Amino acid sequence: MSKHLGFISRQFDSTEECLSAALSLADNIAMKSPIAVQGTKLAMNYSRDHTIDDSIQFIRTWNQSQLQSDDLFRASAAAFSNEKPKFDDA
């Protein structure tokens, strides 16, 4: 019932399966741009306490500021060459 209502995204039959899925998700997130991961967390935390309009404006401003990083270029180049991008640690 919880999954049907959207309270949870997945269920596991064992602790081991849950841990394996959590580590897989962590690996997936770790491969992303550190700036994008931090920005997503920042936007989610901001949006929790602000209006939709304020949150959209915040995210718009954040995204524009991040166009100055090398991460966008690295991600685009990696996608074009069918390789995994390599990002600097933030």
Automatic annotation (TrEMBL):
Molecular function terms from GO: delta(3,5)-delta(2,4)-dienoyl-CoA isomerase activity
GO CC terms in record: mitochondrion
Pathway: Lipid metabolism; fatty acid beta-oxidation
Keywords from the UniProt entry: Fatty acid metabolism, Isomerase, Lipid metabolism
Superkingdom, natural source: Eukaryota
Annotated GO biological process: fatty acid beta-oxidation
Family, as annotated: Belongs to the enoyl-CoA hydratase/isomerase family.
Record protein name field: Enoyl-CoA hydratase
Organism of this sequence: Wuchereria bancrofti
Taxon lineage: Eukaryota, Metazoa, Ecdysozoa, Nematoda, Chromadorea
